[in-house]
Amino acid sequence: MDKAVKLYRLRELVEATGVSASTLRVYREAGLIEPAAREGRRYLYDEETVETVQRIRRLRRDLGVNLAGIQVILEMRRTIEELQEHLDEVVRFVREELRAEMERYLRQQEKAVVPKAFSRPPTKPAG
After folding, report:
1. 10 Å Cβ neighbour count for 27?
2. Is the pLDDT of residue 123 over 90?
3. What's this model's pTM, rounded to 2 decimal places?
4. Residue 33: pLDDT above 90?
5. Do the beta carbons of residue 71 and residue 31 sit within 8 Å?
6. Residue 38 forms beta bridges with which residues?
7. DSSP character string of the chain
8. Who contacts 126 (Cβ-Cβ below 8 Å, separation ≥6)?
9. Cα 5 to the chain's mean position, in Å?
10. CB of 17 closer than 8 Å to CB of 58
11. Which pLDDT belongs to residue 1?
């Protein structure tokens, strides 16, 4: 079952982030944030946008990074996340292949026939 996604109108995004509407428009026009949907002529933003705006705010306020630098940082972050997702897929694939190979090996071992002469130690004749 899909979880309902909270969408923010511009006014709500302003309240959630503490960033002015005009600044948010600049971020949108610069490609730093993207609307998740539209409602008529109004843009709607998701929780990911809230997090992105807060990240931009910290970069500008705390580190003094300009918009061009922020754009590079955000793009690098997206690239890293995509690479991490790909790496996770590769790890899942390798684990599944390893599991399947181990199962094949164990089945093969179960089928292996041990000659009777070697199956139990020799016994001493009674005497």
Report:
1. 21
2. no
3. 0.68
4. yes
5. yes
6. 43
7. -PPPPP-B-HHHHHHHH---HHHHHHHHHTTS---SEEETTEEEB-HHHHHHHHHHHHHHHHH---HHHHHHHHHHHHHHHHHHHHHHHHHHHHHHHHHHHHHHHHHHHHHPPPPHHHHS---PPP-
8. none
9. 18
10. no
11. 47
